[in-house]
Specification:
The protein is an alpha/beta fold. Among the domains are: 176 residues, P-loop containing nucleotide triphosphate hydrolases (Rossmann fold), CATH 3.40.50; 84 residues. It has 17 helices and ten strands. A five-stranded parallel sheet has the order 2-3-4-1-5, with helices on both faces. The chain has a five-stranded antiparallel sheet with strand order 8-7-6-10-9, with helices on one face. It is globular, with a radius of gyration of 24 Å. The structure holds adenosine-5'-diphosphate (ADP) and magnesium ion (MG). Magnesium ion binds next to α4. It comes from Craurococcus roseus. This is Novel STAND NTPase 1 domain-containing protein.
Length: 444
């Protein structure tokens, strides 16, 4: 059943869900376009433009994916969401840190559901949104042609299918009234970035709506997506809906999946990503697809500026330079504060050991006592005093449902920043970080 469903998605040719990962050292791709010294200047410019465009399309750190062609991993989660909706008629809550691929995966889920004749509405929340704003946004995203009854006079100003909702302040049961107002039978409503909504009442009303829809077995299912550690944190405490909602936490990618992401992008952009460069980026990304895409894009631009078609060490250095310089200021400020502008070498070493330490599939790590004055932090001994400084600065947070010893970085990419700084700043350290041997032995 699931194979049939997944077949609706446009996997890369020759690769099906569950197939073995791509070999890590496939032959270099054919050059995208030939370069020749005798080409006229205009042609050279055209070729360069084409290469830049291909690179930009292959590595998209600032855009969620829209097709499965470039999706690395995620088969399990994709299958779980589809099974929840199709076989269990359950609503879904998907959560993870920023940059882990939530919106990308949801785009593919939506594509698969549309192929199965679902009407799929989506809305990305803003901080000030309330229940009304979310529901109206969802309806506006649906094409008007789905309305069973044409819009009435005076409703022209309404966008998409907003006319399916009554005027005035919306109530929970207004969602039930949507059934019958559409040409299609089954509807999925995707609410992305739900963590941004600050209004507690809106969370409760959305949870109430899910409960009501489930109780009446209505053919409308919600997918709620956001930054969170768990379902309750995102949707609020609402014990009676637990049965009707399937939780889909999104783990980090594995190093193999990160390398597959890089290899696939390289083939698409017509460039060569040597194994050592892929290992190095996987060691810095530590499972975060955003970081892998970012470093690959900048390394690619540097390679093009050199007039080459193969990523070299100098390109990684350049990519690191840019990624560090353009990092989220909250992350770089935190690093500067903790390390006193980089002068506190003990703190720098501690951060590096933590960022390279043992983490679980969600990037969380364990902190436990390890003798007087010492702790075991992410599997490595560290002075308790240094750890306390991280706690005091708000650089780490306890993971709500993981017991007293489980922690995560407060800023999702802080660990990546620490590793990128180390690789950029310290020559010995850089040699270590950028060598394949080191990257393959990084604990996960
Ligand atoms: N499975 C994946 N394979 C390859 N790239 C991915 C994958 N998931 C996410 N990305 C890339 O990572 C970046 C962040 O993804 P996005 O879906 O926006 O994350 P989120 O919604 O969790 O913040 C984007 O550049 C996207 O293209
Ligand atoms: Mg997103």
């Amino acid at each position: 059943m699931m194979q049939r469903l997944l077949a609706h998605i446009d996997w890369p040719p020759g690769r099906r869900p569950g197939s073995a990962p791509e070999p890590s050292s496939s032959p270099p791709p054919a050059p995208l376009l030939p370069s020749h010294p005798l080409h006229a200047d205009a042609d050279v410019t055209d070729v360069e433009d084409a290469r830049r465009t291909a690179l930009r399309k292959a590595f998209t750190p600032t855009h969620p994916l829209r097709s499965a062609r470039r999706l690395a991993g995620r088969r399990t989660q994709l299958a779980r969401v589809l099974r929840a909706m199709l076989d269990e008629s359950a609503h879904v809550v998907m959560y993870a840190e920023r940059g882990r691929g939530k919106t990308s995966l949801i785009n593919l889920v939506s594509e698969a559901l549309r192929a199965l004749a679902f009407m799929v509405g989506s809305y990305s929340c803003a901080a000030e949104d309330d229940f009304d704003a979310i529901l109206r946004g969802l309806m506006r995203s649906l094409p008007r042609s789905l309305l069973a009854v044409p819009v009435q006079q005076g409703e022209d100003r309404l966008l998409g299918c907003e006319a399916a909702l009554p005027d005035g302040r919306l109530q929970t049961h207004d969602v039930l009234g949507l059934t019958g107002r559409f040409t299609g039978r089954r509807m999925v409503l995707v609410v992305d970035e739900f963590d941004r909504v600050t209004d507690v009442a809106t969370r409760t009303r959305l949870a109430d709506t899910i409960k009501l829809l489930s109780d009446r077995a209505a053919p409308i299912l919600f997918i709620i997506v956001g930054v969170s550690d768990n379902l309750e944190e995102l949707l609020g405490r609402h014990p009676s809906i637990q049965r009707n909602v399937v939780s889909v936490p999104l783990p980090l990618l594995t190093d193999t999946e990160i390398e597959a992401l890089l290899e696939r992008g390289a083939q698409e952009a017509g460039l060569v990503f040597p194994p050592a460069a892929r290992y190095a980026i996987a060691g810095l990304a530590r499972g975060v697809p955003y970081i892998a895409q970012l470093l690959a894009l900048h390394a690619g631009y540097s390679m093009l500026r050199r007039g080459s078609q193969e990523i070299a060490r100098a390109d990684l250095d350049e990519a690191l330079e840019i990624a560090v310089a353009e990092a989220d200021p909250r992350v770089s400020r935190l690093y500067e504060t903790l390390t006193e502008g980089g002068r506190d070498t003990a703190m720098r070493a501690f951060l590096r050991s933590l960022a390279n330490g043992t983490q679980d599939a969600f990037g969380r790590f364990v902190v436990e006592p390890a003798g007087p004055g010492f702790l075991s932090v992410a599997g490595r001994a560290a002075p308790a005093e240094l750890w306390q400084r991280l706690v005091d600065a708000g650089a780490v947070r306890r993971c709500g449902d993981g017991g007293p010893h489980l922690f995560a970085m407060a800023e999702a990419t802080f660990g990546n920043y620490v590793l990128m700084r180390a690789a950029r700043d310290g020559p010995e350290r850089r040699a270590e970080t950028l060598s394949p041997v080191q990257a393959t032995t990084v604990a996960r």
